[in-house]
Design goal:
Length: about 130
């Protein structure tokens, strides 16, 4: 019998494109259901989208907002994946695991600060324009 080259632990994860999307959506659902910070980021994103619509930000600004939001949510996904993997490898305290988790959390913080700065650059002028029109 020929080996597929896959590790036995990967069996059942599917090979096709539909399975890949199913797994990705399962990951998003797991992130939202288990991570408070991800829900906070999504709540902020909903407010940002509403503000963008109300303030009629430009297409270029929508691109900046979309990229910033994607950066934060991607960082949150990677942080959660790293934390889950670390916890399954070594449930107790380990300085190397702590370092990996701290670095992953730093990635989320850096992306969130970057998104906040992007938001200020986009929304302060848009808000000032909106106020002048009133």
């Amino acid at each position: 019998m020929r080996s597929s080259g896959k590790d036995e632990s990967m069996k059942g994860s599917g090979d096709g494109l539909p399975d890949s999307f199913r797994n990705a959506f399962a990951g998003i659902a797991a992130l939202i259901s288990s991570e408070r910070n991800a829900r906070i980021h999504l709540g902020i994103l909903i407010l940002v989208i509403a503000a963008g619509i109300l303030l009629k930000i430009s297409p270029a600004h929508w691109i900046a907002v979309t990229l910033a939001a994607g950066l934060v949510l991607t960082a949150e996904c990677l942080n959660t994946a790293i934390e889950s993997l670390c916890d399954s490898i070594k449930p107790g305290y380990d300085p190397g695991i702590k370092r990996a988790k701290d670095l992953a959390a730093a990635g989320v913080l850096i992306s969130a600060v970057t998104a906040a700065v992007t938001g200020l650059i986009v929304f302060i002028p848009a808000f000032l324009r909106f106020i002048k029109q009133i």
